[in-house]
Amino acid sequence: MKKIVITALLTIILIQGFSQVSSAEKKGDGKAATAADSNSITKVVVGQDRLAIADNGNKINVRVGNRGLTILESLEGKLPKIEVEKYNDNSSFYKDQDDNKDSKGHRRTHFRGHWAGCEIGFNNYVTDNYNFSLPAGIEYMSLNSGKAMNFNLNFSQLSIGLGRHIGFVTGLGLNWNNYRFDGNNNILKDASGNIINDPYSETLKKSKLATLYLDLPVLFEVQIPTDHQRINIAAGPIGAIKISSHSKMVFENGDKVKSDGDFSLNMLRYGATARIGYENFEIYGTYYMTPLFKHGKGPGGVDLFPFEIGLAFSIN
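RESULT FIELD:
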């Protein structure tokens, strides 16, 4: 009776002191279970392995999160001996031989990939031989690389775990691309659908082609634990469908001209994307194997292949 009262009091203190218990139960996914093995060890686990009490007759283990107490029965009849312990993620406190299958399932369901969030970076394009230099005659497609930027908002994510630190990640995202031209010109589509130069005698403060795509990636992600943090590495194919596109010019006198149109852009595109980061911060890069414009309709009949590189902040 004495041990039960002490155990109850110390459990309450641990719960209040370390605030490790309530999060799983508030979300409605907390469960309680009891089990006994061949050595007559009684174990009670509450929530997602957040609170556990184990009694083998000679001692009682109480664990809340990564903190715990061991209460040893005194042979001299005095007050029991109390030891404070700290556990790591690999502790076997919760695990039995009969729990192996459930433990693997628990690790799989707790895999969280890194896709949902926001990204910002730079975009550009290369020719079919991965050359940044544009052929003669289409110099008007040269970009101001320091101002040709993209912004991505990845608003949904699905993680499919193969283990606690490995699995597949997919989802949906919106991809804005701004191709900021370097010259005093814009582009337009002629009657045949070809992209041609649209020069201006007035000085342009800004001229760009803007696109908006809906992205769908399929990433294979590996997470490498380092202390209590993780290095994340992911790569895979990505597909996209065009939602809108327009050109915009801003003149020195403040006048603005915006023109909506399809600009012979490919409606569908696919490519490869990869990212590496530490916890929720990553560096990402994407290369599209589909030309920016429809084949044969690009400037001077040249295919231009877009790519992006930048920084991402994920929410998982």
